[in-house]
Amino acid sequence: MSTTPSISRKISHYVLVRVLVDKAYSTRLFTTAVERFDATDRDKNHAKEIIFGSLRQIIYIDFLLQQLISRGKNRVKPAIMSAMRIGCYEILFMRTPNAIAVNEAVSLCAKFNKHLRGFVNGVLRKVVKLSDSGELPDPIQVLNDPITGVAIKHSVPLWLFERIVAISGVD
């Protein structure tokens, strides 16, 4: 397998780290990154799906990663966490072959910390294994709180979901 991540994943990683750490605007940063990395239309479209899909699903992805990382996701550096988010998104929500999604995420980490490649590989292989067996942690069961669990499962901010529930009158 290649040790150099694809252009689309480099763009995705760059944008996700900057959005989540620096609170940069994703659309502006995306446009700049596409030009900076001299991306083809195919790379641009793939990066767009990874970036905006990962941001759409970030609450659920972070919940899953939190369940699988024994040290806690807050102790993992943002660049490594973003690589795992990309890998997790590709595994769960795209048609990327699992081995490629894992390898590309691991390759993204090599630039930042070569010693964490095994850690990232292990976490993402666990996601693959649990996904394939239908045993991914269910937020509703893990948290024992249906409102919070459903909000996480559908990656909706809790404050918004609580408001929807209050307006609709659903218990």
List the topology elements.
Layout: H1 7-22, H2 26-36, H3 41-56, H4 58-68, H5 78-93, H6 98-110, H7 117-132, H8 139-143, H9 146-153, H10 158-168
Description:
This protein has 171 residues and is mainly α. It has 10 helices and no strands. It has helices spanning 7-22, 26-36, 41-56, 58-68, 78-93, 98-110, 117-132, 139-143, 146-153, 158-168. Helix 4 packs across helix 5. The longest helix has 16 residues, at 7-22. It is globular.
Structure summary:
72% of the residues lie in helices and 0% in strands. With 171 residues, the protein is mostly helical.
**C-alpha end-to-end distance:** 50 Å
> Count of DSSP helices?
10
- As a percent range, the share of strand residues is under 5%
**Would you tell me the structural class of the helices and strands?**
mainly alpha
Give the rounded overall mean pLDDT: 93
- pLDDT < 50 stretches: none
Q: How much helix is in the residues? A: over 70%
Helix-strand string = HHHHHHHHHH
Give the overall silhouette.
globular
Largest sheet composition = none
Which value, in Å, is the CA radius of gyration?
16 Å
Number of strands: 0
List keywords for this structure.
mainly alpha; 171 residues; 0% strand
